């Protein structure tokens, strides 16, 4: 299950909904840049690092090797849930997952400040610098917490260049190796009960015909390879990321579900062809509650973009869509949907690979008739007003994969299931 747009599509709700019927829910990339909201009855949970399956008692939540883990955030998320009576004892964390250290958070913040107007608008959680260390082979992994001598050597190697950069280039104080090592060792015992060989656990589970659900963070257009680079996150939320980030082969994956919002939102900088700067945009933000769960920033809002949905179908090999937040569109007389772009006077049907073309892309809209009836109580497709049905059918046709579920409200039961996911 993954985001088909720029994140915040409702992955948390969708994952939680299936959590009750699957054996494992696995996060495979990203870190606490994610903010997944789950509403169960009158309780609302904001999850950042923990897989949304943590709220389903029968399900084992797994943090895969592809995730970057901030230990202090993880421990406070766990204790926050424990205080609310959620049992978190089944959690498994890959020993190969990389750790977001305090210096990675510092580097994220200072480099964004240094970029000035060209900044990415990151969440400031140290995500990019931690993945950079991983690729540069100077990263710290969860397993390193259990060997003080190796940990010290690795922190030394990581800080060697960084301290030069911080002091000489960014005008900041150097970070002491001993201080970082001491802080990291302080997490070791607390995390120890959860650390496991998650690749082995997941593959054994699949051999025993258990059902494993992979929960993406962020979304397709924020993917480091397939997104709107450089305005992206530093990992692969797209489907292939589930294989590398969890150590499960592509032949083991049977369904790839794209979570798709009935309109579009984006947080942070970067191109967004259907973005609205008028009262419609304001209305989507207000009605949809489009404010970041992680950073509290207002989300940029715009109409549905079918070019992006088709692109998501292609790069992920989507088998299904879960369409969310259809209820938010109630009340518009007509709803514009972007069916193609106009770039330098030419109509373009598919996402251009060139960044300069995408920055110029103007949406070509088709108007679909709206509806005014409250749809939040709809339980089946036929309960929806005719125009809402037609809107869903039109999106399905344009997007290239069947819409198998529709969200009509934030709660678990505010969902219309059309085809079973299992
Ligand atoms: P995620 O990051 O993809 O998990 O999405 P977020 O949790 O950041 O943002 C989605 C927001 O929409 C959350 O506040 C959800 O509770 C809410 N939500 C999810 N599905 C629906 C839906 O079908 N209708 C409405 N009205 N809200 C929804
Ligand atoms: P969920 O999982 C929306 C955006 C940031 C920024 C860019 C890079 O809740 O959908 P980063 O801190 O990752 O280096 O920031 O990516 N971003 C998200 N936008 N939802 C998210 O997660 C996001 N995680 C990162 O706003 O533009
Ligand atoms: Mg979110």
UniProtKB/TrEMBL annotation:
Primary subcellular site in the record, as a coarse category: cytoplasm
One GO process term, biological-process aspect: 'de novo' AMP biosynthetic process
Residues forming the catalytic site: 8 (proton acceptor), 36 (proton donor), 134
Subcellular location: Cytoplasm
Requisite cofactors: Mg(2+)
Documented EC number(s): 6.3.4.4
Pfam families referenced in this protein's UniProt entry, alphabetically: Adenylsucc_synt (PF00709)
Residues that hold GTP according to the record: 7-13, 35-37, 299, 325-327, 407-409
Residues that bind IMP: 8-11, 33-36, 123, 137, 218, 233, 297
Biological or metabolic pathway of the protein: Purine metabolism; AMP biosynthesis via de novo pathway; AMP from IMP: step 1/2
GO molecular function: adenylosuccinate synthase activity; GTP binding; magnesium ion binding
Xref: PANTHER family: ADENYLOSUCCINATE SYNTHETASE
Family in the record: Belongs to the adenylosuccinate synthetase family.
NCBIfam families: PRK01117.1, purA
Protein name: Adenylosuccinate synthetase
């Amino acid at each position: 299950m993954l985001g088909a747009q720029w994140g915040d599509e409702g992955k948390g709700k969708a994952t939680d909904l299936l959590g009750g019927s699957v054996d494992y829910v696995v996060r495979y990339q990203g870190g606490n840049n994610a903010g997944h909201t789950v509403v169960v009855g009158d309780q609302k949970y904001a999850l950042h690092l923990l897989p949304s399956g943590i709220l389903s008692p029968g399900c084992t939540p797994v943090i895969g090797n592809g995730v970057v883990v901030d230990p202090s955030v993880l421990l406070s998320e766990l204790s926050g849930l424990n205080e609310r009576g959620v049992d978190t004892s089944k959690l498994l964390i890959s020993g190969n997952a990389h750790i977001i250290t305090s210096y990675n958070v510092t580097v994220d913040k200072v480099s964004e400040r240094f970029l000035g107007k060209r900044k990415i608008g990151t969440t400031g959680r140290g995500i990019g610098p931690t993945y950079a260390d991983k690729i540069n082979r100077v990263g710290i992994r969860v397993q390193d917490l259990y060997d003080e001598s190796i940990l010290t050597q690795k922190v030394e190697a990581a800080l060697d260049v960084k301290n030069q950069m911080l002091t000489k280039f960014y005008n900041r104080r150097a970070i002491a190796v001993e201080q970082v090592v001491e802080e990291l060792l302080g997490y070791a015992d607390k995390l120890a009960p959860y650390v496991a060989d998650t690749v082995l656990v997941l593959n054994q589970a699949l051999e025993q015909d258990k059902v494993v659900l992979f929960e993406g963070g962020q979304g397709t257009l924020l993917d480091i390879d397939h997104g709107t680079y450089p305005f992206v996150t530093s990992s692969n939320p797209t489907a292939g990321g589930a294989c590398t980030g969890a150590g499960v082969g592509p032949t083991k994956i049977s369904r790839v579900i794209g979570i798709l919002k009935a309109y579009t939102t984006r947080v942070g900088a970067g191109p967004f062809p259907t973005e609205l700067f008028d009262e419609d945009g304001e209305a989507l933000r207000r009605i949809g509650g489009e404010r970041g769960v992680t950073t509290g920033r207002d989300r940029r809002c715009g109409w549905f973009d079918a070019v992006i949905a088709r692109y998501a179908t292609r790069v992920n090999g989507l088998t299904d869509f879960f369409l969310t937040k259809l209820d938010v569109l109630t009340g518009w007389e007509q709803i514009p949907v972007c069916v193609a772009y106009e770039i330098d006077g030419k109509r373009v049907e598919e996402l251009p690979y060139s960044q300069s073309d995408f920055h110029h892309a103007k949406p070509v809209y088709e108007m679909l008739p709206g509806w005014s009836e409250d749809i939040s109580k709809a339980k089946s497709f036929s309960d929806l007003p005719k125009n809402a049905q037609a809107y869903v059918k039109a999106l399905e046709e344009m997007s290239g994969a069947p819409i198998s579920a529709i969200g009509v409200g934030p709660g678990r039961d505010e969902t219309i299931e059309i085809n079973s996911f299992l």
